[in-house]
Amino acid sequence: SALLRFTHFVQKTFALWVIVFAALALWQPDFFVWLKAYIPWILGIIMLGMGMTMTVDDFKGVLQSPKAVLIGVVAQFVVMPGLAFVLCKLFNLPPEIAVGVILVGC
User: What DSSP character marks residue 37?
Assistant: First the structure.
């Protein structure tokens, strides 16, 4: 019961936690350097948690509106990387930074 209350509290205040920790990381980045080795594990736990919240109705929604899903897929894999590439060319970014911008766009 206590764990359930705690998870509900974290869910309701998640945006606030993101802002607080982002500000803390900008202010004192050394506080978070030790987490570097654990990033793949942390991302895996986050992805697992997100996947566990999915229900059958979520998948039914995908099947009921395939056009919206197709638009999202095209935007994710064509529009966003393409826009990142155009921005890199437009701002004449050095190759090292351009690669990072395009990867973020992907």
Answer: G
pLDDT per residue over 35-80, tens digit each?
989 999 999 998 998 888 889 998 898 889 889 999 999 999 999 9
Q: Are 49 and 74 in contact (CB under 8 A)?
A: no
Which residue intervals of 1-106 are DSSP H helices? 2-12, 14-27, 39-52, 56-64, 66-74, 80-90, 95-105
Distance CA 22, CA 16 (A): 10
Q: What is the pTM of this model?
A: 0.51
**Average pLDDT of the segment spanning 95-102:** 94
d(CA 102, CA 86): 9
33: its two tokens: 């350097």
From residue 45, alpha-carbon distances to 38, 48, 72 in Å are 11, 5, 24
The single-letter DSSP state of residue 61 is: H
